[in-house]
Amino acid sequence: MVLNAETGGAVDLGEELTMVGALNRALARAMQDDDTVVLLGEDIGVNGGVFRVTDGLLNEFGDRRVIDTPLAEITIAGAAVGMAVEGLKSVVEIQFSGFMYSVIDHIVNHAARLRNRTRGEKTCPMVLRMPVGGGIHAPEHHSESVETYFAHTPGLRVVIPSSPRKAYGLLLAAIQDPDPVVFLEPTRLYRLGREKVEDDGVALPLDVAFVLREGSDITLVSWGASLVETLQAAEELAKDGVSAEVIDVATLKYMDEKTILESVKKTGRVVVVHEASYTGGFGGEIIKRVAKHCLLALLAPPDCVAGYDTVMPLSQLEKQYIPSVERIVAAARDALKYS
Q1: In the chain, fewer beta carbons within 10 Å around the N or the C end?
Q2: Which residue ranges make up each domain of the chain?
Q3: pLDDT one-digit tens code per residue, 220-250
Q4: Domains 16-196 and 210-336 share a fold
Q5: Is the C-alpha dihedral spanning 204, 130, 224, 52 positive or negative?
Q6: Mean pLDDT of the region 101-128
Q7: Residue 142 has what pLDDT?
């Protein structure tokens, strides 16, 4: 039986779920299909996690597979690496992205390097889950966008879902991956909307970007929660007759650059949108590749709409920090001025 993370009751196949419910179902399905999958984290058992993603799984699978850990992120990460090396598939929940800095030691120095260090004799099949981003009026240490920290590390795969269905399929794929995956869950999307999710156990492909909306005049590239405003911006542009193609990167590392570059070569214009601060953000990586491979096709300079180079402000100013529909539309219109 699969439990609904919001009601605690059984769910039917194809029920419309929030992202929380879809993640819960993916974890349950993975644990049903593979008894080596083990969950670790603070308050994930009895309390079902701070956002209730693991609600009901302790009763379903027991405390040997859903493990409430001490409040010690570095210990959790170290234990997860050791378990993965010895044949388990450890899925770790970090309560908030601001708590992940002590985890980096084990993830970067050990999990990401294990395949190379052992010349392929061992792998580290673990998933590091954590909520990211602002928009829920949380304190500053709960609102970071940390994708670039991990994407810079060879050996780590970085995945960010943008909808319940993608959360279900991509989490299954991450758990099945023989190498470590950092799975970043946009906090703002946890309960923002619902989507029909088939609990069929079918994983979505990693390292694939998804074209959410086809267009011919400009390419808008984004991931995670920022796709909400990006899609709304595409709708606004359509009112003026502008055809915007919207791409969900989904897997930042290793990125599907082919889909992005083909779109830019078609439209000649690109705006990248992300919530992380502007300097050093992953948008710069995309623009670097666009500049290298699409220079002769570009009709306008590539642009990036991002968070500001400051700490995420507290709740009254969150909306001013997060890239808005108005900022995205303005950047797109600037690009469209070039002919």
Answers
A1: C
A2: 16-196, 210-336
A3: 999 999 999 999 999 999 999 999 999 999 9
A4: yes
A5: positive
A6: 95
A7: 84
CA dihedral (100, 4, 186, 80) in degrees, to 10, reads 20
- Residue 137 has a pLDDT of 84
The percent of residues above 70 in pLDDT, for the chain, comes to 96
Return the CATH number of 210-336, one of 3.90.480.10, 3.40.718.10, 3.40.50.620, 3.40.50.920. 3.40.50.920
pLDDT, mean of residues 102-107: 94
pLDDT tens sequence across 177-224 = 999 999 999 999 999 999 999 999 999 999 999 999 999 999 999 999
Pairing of strands 89-93, 66-68: unpaired
Active site residues per annotation? 142
Place of tokens 């991002």: 306
> For the segment 38-52, what is each residue's pLDDT rounded down to a tens digit?
999 999 999 999 999
φ/ψ of residue 222, rounded to 5: -155, -175
Closest residue by Cα to residue 131 from 97, 108, 107: 97
Using 50, 70 and 90 to split pLDDT, how confident is the model at 1? very low
Q: What is the DSSP pairing of strand 89-93 with strand 37-41?
A: parallel
Q: In this structure, which topology does domain 16-196 adopt according to CATH?
A: Rossmann fold (3.40.50)
Quick one: tokens of 72? Answer: 């010690």
Query: Cβ(68)–Cβ(46) under 8 Å?
Result: yes
